[in-house]
Design brief:
Aminopeptidase, single chain, twelve-stranded mixed sheet, globular, alpha+beta, 9 helices, 2 domains
């Protein structure tokens, strides 16, 4: 499949149709968005309107999403019309650097990712095990990841949707990662991959990568996606992932009361 066809498939299955157990998927007037209960982030995942209608569409989304009790983002990919990003910025949205969307064809997995995983990688299957995931995330990134207890608890309770893994060193949680097995899609997706700084360069990220690649293959998926940051992009590229597109999240402008308090 050529890159144009892959991008069309990605837009259709990963932006227009993708559904999470805790989200409401809404399609209206050329916009697809995912609505999540607070404190989660609402997301405008896809937009297909004419240039003439773009400003009105953005204004309508701001008017609807801004009063809600959680922030909202607008997803923009490199292959979207260039005018979209410019008009979001003009309407007060803000953004960070783009993230690489890397793709692995699971019919051409390198031998290193098909080999048995020898690190101490354990699957987390219940809510009690989430405490090890939370411990890793909070040590790596700081702040509170208590929200994982409820959200990931729901995901674990949804049969076949997520497999979650922790790598251990000396019986202590050292790295965490998960794979979403999206129903009725050719794509599975990788998330996480956080490793404690003092335990990096031990192959834990690669072990978790291999574990999840094998899960996706065993479940019959054709493609595997990861939004890779600067640290993980060269690792997954070394293992056969190629750049599909880049993605940016444009944060919605604060409500007037929020702006006045800043």
């Amino acid at each position: 499949m050529d890159n144009s066809a892959l991008l069309d498939l990605y837009d259709r299955e990963c932006r227009m149709q993708l559904h999470y157990p805790d989200q409401l998927l809404e399609r209206c007037d050329g916009v697809v968005r995912r609505i999540r209960p607070a404190p989660g982030v609402n997301i405008v995942a896809y937009c297909a309107v004419s240039a003439a209608d773009l400003d009105a569409t953005i204004g309508a989304q701001i008017a609807d999403l801004q009063p809600r009790p959680q922030p909202y983002d607008w997803t923009v990919c490199a292959h979207d019309p260039p005018l979209l990003a410019a008009r979001l910025l003009a309407h007060g949205f803000s953004t960070d650097e783009p993230t690489a969307v890397m793709l692995l064809d699971l019919e051409a997995v390198p031998a290193a990712l098909r080999a048995p995983v020898t690190a101490d990688v354990r699957r987390i299957t219940d809510r009690a095990g989430l405490e090890d995931v939370i411990a890793v995330e909070e040590q790596v990134w700081g702040g509170s990841f208590a929200w994982m207890r409820e959200r990931f608890g729901r995901y674990l309770d949804t049969p076949g949707f997520m497999q979650l893994f922790v790598a251990y060193v000396d019986a202590q949680p050292a790295s965490a990662a998960w794979v979403f097995l999206h129903p009725q899609s050719q794509f599975a997706s990788l998330w996480g991959g956080s490793t404690l700084p003092q335990l990096r360069c031990r192959g834990l990220y690669t072990a978790l990568l291999a574990q999840r690649v094998q899960v996706a293959r065993d479940h019959g998926y054709r493609y595997l996606l990861i939004e890779a940051g600067p640290q993980s992009q060269p690792i997954v590229a070394k293992h056969g992932f190629t750049l599909l597109t880049t993605v940016q999240q444009f944060g919605g402008p604060a409500a007037p009361a929020e702006r006045s308090a800043q």
